[in-house]
Design a protein that fits this description.
2 domains; six-stranded parallel sheet; about 325 residues; single chain; Quinone oxidoreductase (NADPH:quinone reductase); ER; alpha/beta; about 25% strand; 16 strands; seven-stranded mixed sheet; zinc ion binding; QOR-like; Quinone Oxidoreductase, Chain A, domain 1; Rossmann fold
Length: about 325
């Protein structure tokens, strides 16, 4: 019998239930996938809590996974049973087996392990579009990464350093400062005892940085703006501390004609060609050693509630993988 983690109502981690489900045969354009690893991401907590509403309940949450194709639909020619694939973003990942659209699946190179794939696709392709498209980081840039020891944070630090940037990052503890430093962060700032705005200004001779990558949200947003140089880019890509309140756009003028954007991965990879190009860029930088994917911890899929508690209490480091 196949099991999945579902929510029947929005709520805290206790809303996650280990349910029996039925997975039928794949229809046109679909494959049936036996999942071997599932990625844990902050967006999962938004879906669980109702911060991001789902089309209907009950629902299987999760947006990233890897596994083996078990069966293909009648018109699928690009994949066959036995192929290893990964995906992101695609809702419904918290399951032992699932149906998935073939055109959203990414064939995995032989050198990528399933756990690594489930840990890297959503966070890695997020880092890819942030660094390569939203703001194109150039050699010599000095950038600020909020939550530099987190999953996306560590990838951003490594990749930006690989691109020739100087990386400033915020972390909550000395332990996480060491993790960020190991990931290429030149200047970790422990924000629990240091004012990161003042420190960023000191490190940039009072100029500020051209871009801030902020996945924290509410508690850091306004201070992140103060870290920018005139005409700098504020890139808000998450809200781990809660949503940012409405902003008076005159603030952006007063702080130096700043730019603010709230990008999402799906907007950058909604077309298959863009999805495959993003994945290829990620695979290349990992294969050549520019980025190392750190699986900081694993949980059994049925223990997803425990994993959510750890994530929301900031007890995790790097990426987290759920094992069906």
């Amino acid at each position: 019998m196949v099991h999945a983690i579902r929510i029947h109502d929005y709520g805290g981690p206790e809303a996650l239930r280990w349910d029996e489900i039925e997975v039928g045969d794949p229809g046109p354009g679909q494959v049936r996938l036996r999942q071997t690893a599932v990625g844990l991401n902050y967006i999962d907590t938004y879906h669980r809590s109702g911060a991001y509403k789902l089309p209907q309940l009950p629902a299987i949450i999760g947006t990233e996974g890897a596994g083996v194709v078990e069966a293909v639909g009648p018109d699928v020619t690009t994949l066959k049973p036995g192929d290893r694939v990964g995906y992101a973003p695609l809702i419904g990942a918290y399951a032992e087996s699932r149906l998935a659209p073939a055109d959203r699946l990414i064939p995995l190179p032989s050198w990528i392990e399933d756990r690594q794939a489930a840990a890297m696709l959503l966070q890695g392709m997020t880092a890819q579009f942030l660094l390569r498209s939203t703001y194109t980081v150039q050699p010599g840039d000095t950038i600020l990464v909020q939550a530099a020891a987190g999953g996306v944070g560590q990838i951003l630090c490594q990749w930006a350093k690989h691109l020739g940037a100087t990386v400033i990052g915020t972390v909550s503890s000395d332990e996480k400062a060491e993790l960020a430093r190991a990931a290429g962060c030149d200047h970790p700032i422990v924000y629990t005892r240091e004012n990161f705005v003042n420190r960023v200004k000191d490190l940039t001779d009072g100029q500020g940085v051209p871009v801030v990558y902020d996945g924290v949200g509410k508690t850091t947003f306004m201070d992140s703006l103060d870290c920018l140089r005139p005409r700098g880019f504020m890139v808000l890509f998450g809200a781990a501390s809660g949503p940012v309140p409405p902003l008076d756009l005159q603030v952006l003028a007063a702080k130096g004609s700043l730019y603010v954007t709230r990008p999402t991965l799906f907007s950058y990879v909604s077309k298959r060609d863009d999805l495959m190009a993003s994945a290829a860029d990620l695979f290349e930088v990992v294969h050549t050693g520019g980025v190392t994917i750190n699986v900081g911890q694993t949980f059994a899929l049925r223990d997803a509630a425990e994993a959510h508690r750890a994530l929301e209490s900031r007890a995790t480091t790097g990426s987290t993988v759920l094992l069906p």
